[in-house]
Amino acid sequence: MMLEFLSKAIKIKMDSKVTHLRQNLDTIITFLTPYLPLANCHMVEFFTQSHWDRLLPSDLQHYLDKSNLLDAVNIFWKASEKNNLYSENEISKWVETTRNHCLINNEYCLNPQGLQKLIISQGSNMQPELKITEFMNSKKSYEVQSMSAYVASLHNLCGATHCVEAGGGKGHLLVALSLGYQIPSLTIDCDEKTLRNAEKRVKIIQKQWHAIAKKINKNSEVKMSNIDSELHRFAPAFITKDTDLTEVVQNQFKCETVKLLLTGPDSLRLFTTHQNVGALFNVPCCYHLLSEEVDGGLYDVFQRDYGGVGDSYGFPMSEHLRGFNLGRNARMLAAQSIERVTARKELPNRSLLYRALLQEIIKNHSPESTIKEGKLKGISCQSFEEYLKTADAILNIGLDSCQIPETTIDCQWKKIVLFYLIRLCLAQVVESVILMDRLLFLYENGFTNVFLVKLFDPVLSPRCHSIVAIR
Q1: Average pLDDT over every residue of 212-231
Q2: Cross-strand partners of 468
């Protein structure tokens, strides 16, 4: 009777969490839906599609029309500071409203200290951090240092025998786990060239590991032992919902008993379908590579994609959002970090304006011309005249006689900058929908020990959230 009572109590609590999460998602989507055209617009078409007049909220547009560029930008910076008090102007209202519809203002997100308490409360000691600066850039080194201790601790907590990274690419994290914590680790990826290069890199690291370990021992509580070059392996495989991870690990390590901790972008659905996966540590990324029904098969190559596998769409994953779509440009926007932009006070590159002006010229003077996406990427010029000449040399469509007065360019620069910043506020909203959809997906599949963790500093690592689940 007591077990039955506890089972019912757990189910009621879980049903309540699912209902609450769905309600919060619905609130965010209700807010976001009218602004999806703004999130999905392409800045190249800023003038040709009249983005300023068509896509901005009318009150905000009128306020910006009357504002000086420098004053408006300074108001935006101040409004974006999290400790800034709400002020009565349209820019601050917009910043505040978008902020209120994202993860920083709900109860689903733990900080790193919260994750540490969770791990300890469930019976595991926290492993010390491992800092490796060699063979990776500063951003990746920071991420590996931040992740490695938590993944190693979860490995102990769930009694895993191996760590598997699905879609792991270069395998930075698992190299640290195998060499620093002596955890048998396997990186699986469908790109054999990437894996071959990664294997070469690991061999170089192994040769220099004693020197690296000596340096780490001086600055860390992690105590390095003699390395086992066989602890980290790579397996080329195209991951689908039918991939038998246990069999892959058994074949690679020639072992019988397998219990897994799963990391990597291709891990959420695998976690729900593989009973011998004890824990999940997933850092979402590459939102633009997600597949949606509205893509119409265009991105079928990514059906194994970042968050989903096999024949399933990458968004939405939850049943509750089935039929709702974000759009590719909105997903690309979600990968931008308003925290990084505001911390560094970064305005868009002036080439963004030049490319949009060029598109208007092409539409007026050579409407039959089409430009392949990315063909003009990377052009950096000091003036629009120089940009026009450089672009026409690439396109060869006779635009060298076209001119735009500098006064017009300066006026349009104001609109481009302010539109860019206003649109950027939606990035955190779109990303919140993607992350909460994944959290709900795990809830719907019966998992209760599921958490979003704001693990990284978003200024250093814009994709700063991880999804942690314990079976």
Answers
A1: 57
A2: 281, 451
Q: Which residues contact 367 (CB under 8 A, 6 or more apart)?
A: none
Q: Which segments of 135-184 does DSSP mark as H helices, in order?
A: 138-157, 172-181
Winning range, highest mean pLDDT, from 204-213, 236-245, 324-333:
324-333
What pLDDT does residue 378 have? 79
Q: Say yes or no to pLDDT of 413 above 50.
A: yes
The pLDDT tens digits for 129-138 are 777 776 678 8
pLDDT digits (tens, 9 = 90+) for 10-45: 555 567 788 989 999 999 999 999 999 999 999 999
> Distance between CA 61 and CA 58 in Å, rounded?
5
Q: Identify the CA nearest to 146 among candidates 281, 18, 314.
A: 281
CB atoms within 10 A of CB 228: 12
Please report where in the chains the tokens 């200290």 appear, as a residue. 113
Q: What gap in Å lies between CA 81 and CA 104, rounded to an integer?
A: 13
Measure Cα distances from 363 to 48, 258, 359, 360, 397 in Å: 7, 61, 6, 5, 12
Structure token pair of residue 331: 């997903």
Give the 3-state secondary structure percentages of the chain, helix then strand then coil, rounded to 5: 55, 10, 40
- Is residue 340 over pLDDT 70? yes
Would you say residue 221 has pLDDT above 60?
no
DSSP per residue, 74-98: HHHHHHHSTTPPP-SSHHHHHHHHH
Element (H, E) at 469: strand 465-470
- For residue 388, give the nearest of 369, 406, 403, 371 by alpha carbon: 403
Angle 427-444/90-99 helices, nearest 10 degrees? 20
Tokens 């931008």 map to which residue?
336
d(CA 140, CA 407): 43
Place of tokens 């690592």: 461
**DSSP letter at 128?**
P
